[in-house]
Write a structure and sequence with these properties.
The protein has 240 residues and is an alpha/beta fold. The chain is built from twelve helices and eight strands. The radius of gyration is 22 Å and the shape is elongated.
Length: 240
């Protein structure tokens, strides 16, 4: 889903329609079906330059692999992935940079002479020096977790890890290999108190999925919206 969201931004960049206040919305929606037909217009006589996309580092390889596969028949869009230590050497040749686990500080950004957009692969923009990017006239975007399914995925993983810890999964695997039954003795989520630090998209999805376990949920958030009233939260078994 992240790949499709990023490709929509590529189209906006190519056709000059990138709007900074709408970046998070643009990054949150899937690519429309008409994209592949529209983007062929880039090959007109007035615009033959290649749009170059740079993925930083080897981690989360599916991101660049899916993007390359999706755009393989469009020679005017080039997708590359380089090691962290090579980014500084090549970033000047790219128009879009997808930041993963690398910190793009002011020094790296100052070398991005042709850069139009820096995109954080995921929520938040902590991997990008936004002040330096603004100073260089480079737009910054992220991929919100609530609209891409990432929040749901993280919430499910959190519950899996909780259950694994309570049921002592690693110890149980050893016991099974040793043909021992009935040990170790695990615990249940039932009756536990779960504290969610940061009641954003992920925290909200986690709380929804924890309710059937009959736990008490305590959550904290930097700022609460009018809909996050004590009554509405406590009616769902949530406290803050």
């Amino acid at each position: 889903m992240h790949t499709f969201s990023m490709l929509r931004v590529v189209r906006k960049l190519a056709f000059g329609g990138l709007d900074t206040p709408k970046l998070s919305v643009v990054a949150a929606h899937h690519l429309r079906r008409g994209f592949l037909g529209e983007v062929e217009q880039m090959t007109t006589e007035n615009d033959k330059r290649i749009t170059r996309i740079l993925f930083c580092g080897p981690h989360f390889p599916a991101s660049q692999n899916y993007t390359k596969e999706y755009l393989q028949n469009y020679s005017f869009i080039q997708v590359d992935a380089v090691p962290f230590d090579k980014v500084l050497d090549v970033i000047a040749d790219y128009h879009i940079c997808v930041v993963k686990d690398m910190r793009l500080d002011s020094n790296v950004i100052s070398h991005a002479k042709n850069m139009k957009l820096l995109m954080q692969f995921g929520v938040g923009v902590e991997g990008i020096d936004t002040i330096a990017a603004t100073r260089c006239g480079i737009k910054v975007a992220r991929i919100p977790g609530g609209a891409t399914g990432n929040a749901t995925s993280c919430a499910e993983m959190a519950i899996y890890l909780m259950l694994g810890l309570l049921r002592k999964q690693n110890e149980m695997q050893i016991s099974v290999q040793q043909k021992k039954l009935g040990e170790p003795v695990g615990e249940t989520l039932l009756g536990k108190t779960v504290f969610i630090m940061g009641f954003g998209n992920i925290g909200f999805q986690l709380a929804k999925r924890l309710r059937p376990f009959e736990v008490k949920i305590i959550a904290t958030k930097r700022s609460w919206s009018p809909s996050d009233t004590p009554d509405s939260c406590q009616s769902n078994g949530w406290h803050y």
